[in-house]
## 1
Amino acid sequence: MATKLQRPDYAYMGGKIIPWDDAVLHIGCEAITRGLNVFEGIKGYWDIHGNFGIVFLQKHYNRLLRSARLLHIPCPWTYDEYKDAILQLMGRMLSKERDMWARTSLYVVEGHWGEGTKADLIITAYHQDKVMPDPIDIGISTWQRATDSALPARIKTSTNYQVGRLARMEGKPRNCSDMILLNNQGRVAEATGSCVLMVRDGVVYTPPASEGALESITLAFIENLAKSLGIPFVRRPIDRTEVLIADELAICGTLAELVPIASIDGLPMNANGPLLTSIRDRFFKVVRGQESDPFFETTLVPKEYIKNA
Ligand code: PMP
């Protein structure tokens, strides 16, 4: 599941596409000294009709603005400017064989302690194989998701990922490719870069964002898919012991998509459970354009933006 670090040819920075090697930030800016940024991880898929579409772009822009507002980072880019920037970069880099994902970030490049804060919109994009993710083994970390009054999970900022990094490193010797972070009450918050789905007695559960999870765009999509399949979907707090005795478990997110869990803390799980398998099948049919869904949104990269595909 881990995305290998790629070294693409281009990045978007300072209002234009530039060579990757030129995309550098000064060591003196708050993006570096305080890790001050907000970002979105965004996915694009080739559909069966030969179109490449970026999913839920408006929702990602809206969440980027909410994160920026919470950290008092002004975002002068309109949705249309933001959209055009990512379409340009993905169009330049697209190839027919592979999907892509992008990171759209506002890095704080000017200002000091909240005075004169200015950000640059910086976009990097990466290729991704067109495959359904395999089931993974996970564990429960001793590292915790911070509280809303410490480092709010609702803000999608890089500093929030330091605990996720520690959790993944903790999981490595236990052969876990991802880890669940609990909140300070010992209940399930989320995984390091995705949300948790749990099935018990025919109902899909996920913790509400107030338990320490990002307000996930994929989760809203999956909630909708579940309901359209007649599968009950409930947001409520989840105890640690519940995930250990669940009928089915998965993680979901823009990049993770929907990954079944094969074991948790060494306890085997049914990675082919009926509920999450049917949601997963529907998920991939919708993103590939094999089935339509009223909730699903995709922004096609215009043909004239595509250079090599
Ligand atoms: N939690 C965290 C910590 C994440 O990084 C992500 C991925 N953005 C998610 C949850 C899932 O959010 P989304 O479905 O909007 O990608």
Note: The pocket of 4'-deoxy-4'-aminopyridoxal-5'-phosphate is lined by residues 41, 190, 193-195, 213-214, 216-219, 253-254 (CB under 6 Å).
## 2
Amino acid sequence: LGTGGGLCPPFSLNRETRMLEVRNLTKIYDDGTVAIKNVSFVVEDGEFVIIIGLSGSGKSTLLRCINRLIEPTEGEIIWNGVHVETASPEELRVIRRQIGMIFQHFNLVKRSSVMINVLSGRLGYVNPWRSVANRFSQADRRMAIQALERVSIADQAHKRADELSGGQQQRVGIARALMQQPQMILADEPVASLDPVLAHSILGHLERLNKEDGITLLCSLHYLDLVQHYASRVIGLRTGEIVYRGTREQIRRMTDEEFKEIYGAEAERVSVGMGEVL
Ligand code: ADP
């Protein structure tokens, strides 16, 4: 695991606002695929940063390197001043508690109740499933109900997860992440399995968590108009490299040239329903 050779100055200025800093991150899979190539960016406390790019551009790899669900090959990931890439198991547990995650396919235990799924967030999302219902305290249960209320589905708490619609399941995924009381949420294509109306609903919930609870969001997305609507800042990835950086205002005025830089020369800007998609 490379560390970047210590060429960068020690972490000092703006420490309190530089929540996440990724420096020269590279991920090469065992088969030689270079999924992420020399990627650097900063996420400040309270931002809603969206990563866009074609399928296969490296979005998921990038998000998973940040909490080391995937081991980076080279580079540095600095979370609140702590180097994630060299963190000890104990440090990593703390980091993963502070960084929640939600997934494209929700990753719920389908045969368990909504309540149990949300409570499992207390165990941390990387732990194997190991709980029985009665190991959670009353305080945990109250917290789970509050988390479900936050996403307006407390009335579904006792249903089996697979009885819920896709949009509701993703709201359970968000409630589960809230159980960690995260400082930041990583969202890996959280609305890619949903229709555009539900996509807006889910992103609306994430926006409220960002604005009202101050949870920083780092999210990958496909739909360009959703990006324009929710992002405070945008990073465009293409074959593992950053090819675009823009503010919310800049992405609203994205030129065809910039669009093609991200999505390829053959890509057309088409509008489907409520979303401009690839
Ligand atoms: P995205 O999330 O943008 O769709 P990914 O991060 O999933 O992109 O994939 C980036 C690249 O890495 C793709 O070329 C993909 O095929 C490759 N890749 C992803 N996971 C693995 C793996 N476990 N082993 C080898 N290559 C992988």
Note: The pocket of adenosine-5'-diphosphate is lined by residues 29, 31, 33, 35, 53, 55-61 (CB under 6 Å).
